[in-house]
């Protein structure tokens, strides 16, 4: 990778050469390209600068040319040249979109006005799956706020948004065959905050909006634990809460109430709930829910949870996971499950595991994760002590939890995905940064926990392991240069003292 000086780009590209000076951006500069790509660029420039570039049908005299040519780059790849003219060529439409995101990071305000930093870039992603998880259960985000999150993550070249739709605190998706879920199980949230749910039209709107930004929605119905809310609507499906010692201890520590069967739960404790594993009606319920959610989701994945099922015996857990993972396959989707489901020897072939243990995992967690590979699946890495975006930055930070440790920006950056688990590198499907929302009460809270650490997750998911700029000092400098762009886009990031933030 060649840089004269590190270009202020995140994630760092495969190859990038900085030119001398800038190319002035005139308000009359014309944009030629496919309407969707041209609109993406024109709208973004207007938000940043206040002026709207004109689109042009003429390629020969356009100041900015946006093209797709599969011979130029592979899937999601692109080339970008900023000289007297600007040209982006994507290997496909997604690659063109990502090239536009890179170009927007090169748009800077200076003493002489707005202009592009001169550069030559050739780029493509390391991992096929680059994700962010948004927990819309503990805190409910309306459709408009989910769209904002989609815009934020698309700018960093993420291509999956995992929506954690169900948990003990609430149910967030309309299911026609079980209408009381929306009527009774969706009204609550953590901390006693207002709940909510997505109608089917809402969810279709989210899916379509994400697709326009080349993001696949991954819906999660968390089973068989994390299911207290189901029992508020349909008590016959859920067991009585199991009040384990850790639940009692943590609930007292937080000054919260213990869960009560049939009543909305607003605390943070986990592991007390389970659906009735041996009741056939449970599987009628699960099949109906997964069928309707799958019908709403054109992407290939259905996430079935599987984490922290502390109220379920190992035998019952295995029985449930075997049946439900096979059910997802029958529905024509690929199941994803948290790594605990890897303890089940009969989990459906091809199930993808999502690993949330530490960057130095326990033997048990590592063995559970490896089981997915042995069964023909692959792994998404979400090490909790590196990329869980809800962990506190430091002990005094007012938002977030600290059960996985304190995660500052350097901790989020300084890890290598292929070093976490003893599996072949090509069995790692990708990286995902989850944001759990126990302490989140607004979109501003969410953004402060996500930004700036989400940039570290983006770079680990996109940039090759041998990238010359894949160092903390380079990343720290490039991250500081993001400040004026994030401020212009209204992102409320945490201005941690780890970073020297640029003002222009």
UniProtKB/TrEMBL annotation:
The keyword Hydrolase applies. The lineage of its organism: Bacteria, Bacillati, Actinomycetota, Actinomycetes, Micrococcales. This is beta-N-acetylhexosaminidase. It is an enzyme of class 3 (hydrolase). InterPro entries: Beta_hexosaminidase_sua/sub (IPR025705), GH (IPR017853), Glyco_hydro_20_cat (IPR015883), Hex-like_dom2 (IPR029018), HEX_bac_N (IPR015882). Residues 127-464 form the Glycoside hydrolase family 20 catalytic domain. Gene3D superfamilies: Chitobiase/beta-hexosaminidase domain 2-like, Glycosidases. It catalyses: Hydrolysis of terminal non-reducing N-acetyl-D-hexosamine residues in N-acetyl-beta-D-hexosaminides. PANTHER family: BETA-HEXOSAMINIDASE (PTHR22600), BETA-N-ACETYLHEXOSAMINIDASE (PTHR22600:SF57). Pfam families: Glyco_hydro_20 (PF00728), Glyco_hydro_20b (PF02838). Keywords: Glycosidase, Hydrolase. Belongs to the glycosyl hydrolase 20 family. It comes from Microbacterium bandirmense.
């Amino acid at each position: 990778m060649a840089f004269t000086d590190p270009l202020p780009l995140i994630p760092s590209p495969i190859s990038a050469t900085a030119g001398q000076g800038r190319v002035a951006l005139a308000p009359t500069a014309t944009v030629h390209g496919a309407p969707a790509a041209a609109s993406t660029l024109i709208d973004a420039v207007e938000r940043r600068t206040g002026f709207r570039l004109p689109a042009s049908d003429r390629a020969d005299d356009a100041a900015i040319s946006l093209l797709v040519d599969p011979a130029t780059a592979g899937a999601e790849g692109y080339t970008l040249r900023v000289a007297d003219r600007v040209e982006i060529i994507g290997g496909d439409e997604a690659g063109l979109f990502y090239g536009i995101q890179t170009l927007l990071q090169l748009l800077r305000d200076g003493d002489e006005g707005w202009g592009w930093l001169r550069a030559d870039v050739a780029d493509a992603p390391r991992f096929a799956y680059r994700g962010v998880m948004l927990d819309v259960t503990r805190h409910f985000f309306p459709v408009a706020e989910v769209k904002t999150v989609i815009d934020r993550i698309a700018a960093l070249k993420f291509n999956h948004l995992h929506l954690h739709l169900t948990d003990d605190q609430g149910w967030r998706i309309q299911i026609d065959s079980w209408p009381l879920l929306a009527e009774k199980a969706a009204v609550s949230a953590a901390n006693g905050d207002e709940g909510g749910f997505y109608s089917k039209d809402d969810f279709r709107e989210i899916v379509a909006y994400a697709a326009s930004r080349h993001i696949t929605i991954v819906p999660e119905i968390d089973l068989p634990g994390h299911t207290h809310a189901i029992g508020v609507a349909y008590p016959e499906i859920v067991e009585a809460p199991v009040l384990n010692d850790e639940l009692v201890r943590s609930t007292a520590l937080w000054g919260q109430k213990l869960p009560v069967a049939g009543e909305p739960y607003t605390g943070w404790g986990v592991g007390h709930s389970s659906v009735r594993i041996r009741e056939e009606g449970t599987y009628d319920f699960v099949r109906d829910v997964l069928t309707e959610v799958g019908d709403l989701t054109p992407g290939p994945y259905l996430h079935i949870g599987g984490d922290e099922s502390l109220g379920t015996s190992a035998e019952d857990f295995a029985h449930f996971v075997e049946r439900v993972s096979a059910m997802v396959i029958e529905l024509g989707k690929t199941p994803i499950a948290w790594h605990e489901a890897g303890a089940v020897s009969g989990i459906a072939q091809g199930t993808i595991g999502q690993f949330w243990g530490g960057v130095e995992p326990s033997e048990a967690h590592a063995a559970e994760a490896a089981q997915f590979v042995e069964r023909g699946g692959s792994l998404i890495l979400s090490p909790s002590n590196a990329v869980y975006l809800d962990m506190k930055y430091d002990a005094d930070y007012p938002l977030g939890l600290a059960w996985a440790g304190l995660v500052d920006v350097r901790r989020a950056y300084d890890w290598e995905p292929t070093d976490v688990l003893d599996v072949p590198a090509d069995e790692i499907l990708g990286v995902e940064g989850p944001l759990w929302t126990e302490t989140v009460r607004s979109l501003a809270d969410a953004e402060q926990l996500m930004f700036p650490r989400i940039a570290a997750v983006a770079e680990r998911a996109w940039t090759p392991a041998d990238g010359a700029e894949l160092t903390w000092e380079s990343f720290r400098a490039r991250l500081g240069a993001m400040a004026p762009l994030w401020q212009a886009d209204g992102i409320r990031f945490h201005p941690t003292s780890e970073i020297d933030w640029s003002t222009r």
